[in-house]
């Protein structure tokens, strides 16, 4: 019996290739060219909808390490990207036409893969991988909503930046929740009136991302971009996300004029989220403006803030680490719809979903990659319950046991772990 994959983007093509490569049969449903998402322009599989960069090539960068892990697992997306790369400095940049054209030819000519150009409105029976991306068509979105529950499907993300914990000026910040000083879940970054004035000026004059029509998501009062809130009046932020009340600087600073709260994103405290700082500022502008906050002067941004149209599920609630629905192992999800962010992250979950689905169909055991690897840490992120689940791109803060001081070791460990995992998968898949 074949595995059905809905969506021939980065994740769907990767999943199809992995299954076929292991001897499984696939039917891949792709709605283009009969129907288009608002961002896709061609009928190629794995079309890159925006940038033609797959980000850093360097192993010392988490994006580079993730790509190297995928390369060692024979990923078609990375393999073809390497073959079709064009000069791009430290980034893996591809010729988008040649890249997507080559993937399309490889998938369409694979005797084990049947590509059907058809929009799916329902989730079919049997083993199926849903990889329809951030712009999943409306009909299928309704079916997913019915299947998973309306509260488990999101339509846009309003994301605050995440800062590398080691880059925060701890001498310029203090721990404590509002009215509760003995709590270290929140790290408070105080500003004097003068510092606030400078910050406010920069924020309200900073460059913003130009929106395409379909990206113009409705802003809800609860998650307005910080710069839009600031435009309402100079003091608005002081009654909102920069409210100083109940935050007494125990170091002797008294009551600050304004405070930015950072919330721990993981137990290790290697990542901190800027609470309430969802934004549409350009990435470089986020760095420039937010570094005006004294404790963030040298901040390293692990994730930038954004507000996008994005269809994604509440993965921690719905999925296990094999990317299957917890209540129905025949239905898997892959790609951006799981809550990862980015081309390569989407391909990575496609690779895992493909192998996982093939194992399930052929009655083989499947153990996901360990969480000291980039791929495994993405799966851990997707399946760890949090109060406010939001899309995430790969960064070192996600790796289990990661310590910046021993970065080289963590990189070597990740590569060793993924190699071992790949060998174990090869052995399992080779024998019935
Ligand atoms: C406008 C925009 C710009 C982005 N820019 C970048 C960027 O520059 N860099 C980056 O790393 N990431 C970017 N992303 C995020 C993300 O990495 C990409 O969207 C990526 O393509 C996601 O991969 P995917 O396989 O999950 O989905 P996609 O690549 O979108 O693939 C999903 C596929 O499913 C098809 N489909 C949808 N519904 C159905 C249906 N009902 N039946 C059959 N087929 C269906 C679609 O036609 C599409 O081919 C961007 C996202 C958007 C929306």
Structure description:
The protein is of the alpha+beta class and 432 residues long. The protein folds into 2 domains: 3-159 and 309-430, FAD/NAD(P)-binding domain (3-Layer(bba) Sandwich); 162-304, Elongation Factor Tu (Ef-tu), domain 3, CATH 2.40.30. Helices cover 32% and strands 17% of the residues. The chain has 12 helices and 17 strands. The protein has a 6-stranded mixed beta sheet, with helices on one face. Strands 10-11-12-13-9-14 form a 6-stranded antiparallel beta sheet. A 3-stranded antiparallel beta sheet has the order 3-5-4. Helix 2 (62-72) packs parallel to helix 10 (343-361). The longest helix is centred in the C-terminal third of the chain and has 24 residues, at 407-430. It is globular, with a radius of gyration of 22 Å. The structure holds flavin-adenine dinucleotide (FAD). Flavin-adenine dinucleotide binds next to helix 1, strand 2 and helix 10.
């Amino acid at each position: 019996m074949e595995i059905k994959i809905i969506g021939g983007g980065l994740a769907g093509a990767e999943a199809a290739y992995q299954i076929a490569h292991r001897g499984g049969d696939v039917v891949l449903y792709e709605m283009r060219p009969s129907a288009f998402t608002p961002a896709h322009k061609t009928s190629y599989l794995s079309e890159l909808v925006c940038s033609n960069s797959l980000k850093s090539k360097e192993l010392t960068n988490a994006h580079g390490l993730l790509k190297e892990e995928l390369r060692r697992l024979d990923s078609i997306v990375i393999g073809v990207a390497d073959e079709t790369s064009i000069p791009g400095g430290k980034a893996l940049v591809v010729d988008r036409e040649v890249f997507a054209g080559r993937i399309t030819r490889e998938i369409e000519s694979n005797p084990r893969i049947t590509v059907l150009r058809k929009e799916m409105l329902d989730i079919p029976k049997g083993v199926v991988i849903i990889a329809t991306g951030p712009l999943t068509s409306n009909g299928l979105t309704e079916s997913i909503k019915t299947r998973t529950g309306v509260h488990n499907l999101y339509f846009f993300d309003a994301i605050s930046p995440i800062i590398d914990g080691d880059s925060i000026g701890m001498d310029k910040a203090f721990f404590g929740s509002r009215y509760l000083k003995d709590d270290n879940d929140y790290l408070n970054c105080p500003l004097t009136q003068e510092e606030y004035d400078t910050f406010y000026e920069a924020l309200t004059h900073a460059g913003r991302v130009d929106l395409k029509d379909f990206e113009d998501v409705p802003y809800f009062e609860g998650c307005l971009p910080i710069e839009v809130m600031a435009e309402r009046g100079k003091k608005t932020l002081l009654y909102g996300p920069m409210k100083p009340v109940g935050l007494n600087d125990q170091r002797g600073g008294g009551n600050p004029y304004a405070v930015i709260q950072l919330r721990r994103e993981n137990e290790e405290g290697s990542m901190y989220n800027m609470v309430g700082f969802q934004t549409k500022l350009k990435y470089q502008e986020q760095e420039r403006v937010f570094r005006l906050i004294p404790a963030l002067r040298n901040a390293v941004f692990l994730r930038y803030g954004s507000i996008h149209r994005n269809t994604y599920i509440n993965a921690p609630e719905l999925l296990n680490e094999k990317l299957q629905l917890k209540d129905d192992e025949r239905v898997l999800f892959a790609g951006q719809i799981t809550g990862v962010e980015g081309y390569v992250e989407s391909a990575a979950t496609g690779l895992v979903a493909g192998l996982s689905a093939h194992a399930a169909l052929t009655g083989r055991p499947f153990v996901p990659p360990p969480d000291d690897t980039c791929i495994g840490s993405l799966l851990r992120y997707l399946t760890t319950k949090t109060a406010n689940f939001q899309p995430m791109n790969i960064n070192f803060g996600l790796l289990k046991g990661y310590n910046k001081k021993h970065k080289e070791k963590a990189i070597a460990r990740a590569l060793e772990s993924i190699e071992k995992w790949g060998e174990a998968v090869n052995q399992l898949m080779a024998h019935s």
